[in-house]
Amino acid sequence: MQPAGVAAPLKVDITEKTFRSAEGVTIVALRGLSFEVRQGEFACLLGPSGCGKTTTLRILLGLDRRFAGSYQLPEGGSKRIAAVFQEPVLLPWRTVEQNVRLALSPRLRGKDLDSLFEILGLSAMRSLYPSELSLGLARRAALARAFATEPAILFLDEPFTSLDERTADRLRRLLMTVWAARPTTALMVTHNLREALLLADRIIVLSPRPAQVLGIFDVGLSRHSRDTPALDNLVSDFHKRYPDAV
Ligand SMILES: Nc1ncnc2c1ncn2[C@@H]1O[C@H](COP(=O)(O)OP(=O)(O)OP(=O)(O)O)[C@@H](O)[C@H]1O
Questions:
Q1: I need a labelling partner for 62 at 20 to 30 A (CA). Which of 13, 176, 230, 243 fits?
Q2: CATH code for the domain of 75
Q3: How large is the ipTM?
Q4: Which PROSITE patterns match (predicted)?
Q5: What pLDDT, on a 0 to 100 scale, did the predictor assign at position 181?
């Protein structure tokens, strides 16, 4: 048991998660999946398509309680959990700013959001409605909403899919800037190795379904040094260590 006030990691120990298909066939999505994310760390869960990454996040978000095993959220189960999904899920009849403020606890509702909107390049878009935003801007609004809540843990499920590469890259860099300004324990699901190498402190490498941890890849390079040649080297180091992963 972690004493109150002491930094606690995210601990995951899922013994098994199965689904029953429409034809009555049992699909084992996860079996023996165990890992930790340290306090204040940005970790990526990297694995091939269909291996069980989203299933894992849904369990950690409390959206799926039918599994065997256990997990412990940072700070002994604080309620401040934020999530950014593939779809930004903004309320269409609310402005960007209202969407962000609605997510805040009463204590934070009136807080100054200027610097957060500024970092994310959203200062001029605060009073726009979601239908007036490009997909890239809507994703930024979803990031603003997540960080505004000052979460104990932030879960991200492939937040940069279906964007052109330039927009995705700009958003990845914005995510790093906002995370550096407001560090929080973060777990991001992706099947994009370069993305994981650009963003993560450590990568939790998963096997094909049922997802198990093949190993942990410690990126071990400061984020400012992760330019294209450095990323190329990291990709090659990664493939040497995990020739069969992703
Ligand atoms: N509600 C469900 N009913 C039946 N099978 C499911 C259900 N949800 C997920 N699955 C199956 O469980 C497995 C894991 O799915 P999951 O979405 O977690 O994978 P993923 O690693 O996130 O994939 P991707 O990277 O393509 O999003 C897949 O075989 C999927 O078809």
A1: 176
A2: 3.40.50.300
A3: 0.96
A4: ABC_TRANSPORTER_2
A5: 87
Give the span between the Cα atoms of 100 and 25, in whole angstroms: 42
Tens of pLDDT, residue by residue over 186-208, are: 999 998 999 999 999 999 999 99
CA distance 20 to 24: 6
Residue 122 lies in a domain: no
pLDDT of residue 183: 85
* Residue whose CA is at the smallest distance from ligand 1 atom 10: 19
The residue contributing the CA closest to ligand 1 atom 28 is 50
| Number of domains the chain is built from | 1
pLDDT at 221 over 60: yes
Kindly indicate the confidence band of residue 79, based on its pLDDT and cuts at 50, 70 and 90: low
**Ligand 1: nearest atom to the Cα of 206:** 21
Q: Please check whether residue 27 lies inside any domain of the structure.
A: yes
CA distance 226 to 187: 19
- Is beta strand 81-84 parallel, antiparallel or unpaired with respect to 153-157? parallel
Residue 23, pLDDT > 60, answer yes
Structural domain contains residue 50? yes
Residue 52 Cβ < 6 Å to ligand 1: yes
* 85 in any annotated domain: no
Residue-number span of the structural domain to which 227 is assigned = 8-80+184-246
